[in-house]
Design brief:
By secondary structure, the chain is α/β, with parallel strands linked by helices. It has four helices and six strands. Bound molecules: iron/sulfur cluster.
Length: about 140
């Protein structure tokens, strides 16, 4: 799809869900702001939308976001479904808190890259040491991805 400035628009960014397990101050005021909405699209509807945009608008790259995309119930079928329709550039933006559980399955399904939000790195001071909260856990996950 060519926009009014002559640029080729071939990237699609999908917010899979409003739900998140964090409450960053610039995003929401509390975790209760992240309730699942009743009209959230299911996996089949999401894939139909992507297919239509691929066929009619030339979408070649997809990025999955939220909220927190790892809390979307059918994330892995969404990733494999997008890959099966011939889109090979599939990325995800996540706070990383739940990535360890699904990283391998997501890579197997076709996920190619991950943007990690630094908000998930919690700094703590303990007995004079600075502990980078989830940093070590995330590094282990990144080796998988
Ligand atoms: S992790 Fe992202 S979606 Fe969740 S509260 Fe923070 S900025 Fe918002």
């Amino acid at each position: 799809m060519i926009d009014l400035h002559g640029r080729n628009i071939n990237k699609l960014r999908i917010s899979l869900t409003e739900v998140c397990n964090m409450a960053c101050t610039y995003c929401v005021t509390s975790l209760s702001d992240h309730k699942r909405v009743s009209d959230e699209l299911n996996a089949e509807q999401m894939l139909s939308l992507v297919r239509m945009l691929k066929e009619h608008a030339g979408i070649e790259k997809v990025r999955l976001t939220g909220g927190e995309p790892l809390l979307y119930p059918n994330l892995i079928p969404i990733v494999s479904g997008i890959r099966e329709m011939g889109i090979n550039s599939i990325g995800m933006t996540t706070n990383g808190q739940l990535l360890a559980r699904k990283a391998e399955a997501l890579v197997d399904a076709g996920l190619k890259n991950v943007n990690l939000s630094l908000d998930s790195l919690i700094l703590k001071i303990s007995k004079g040491w600075v502990v980078l909260g989830n940093y070590i856990k995330l590094l282990k996950v990144l080796r998988l991805v």
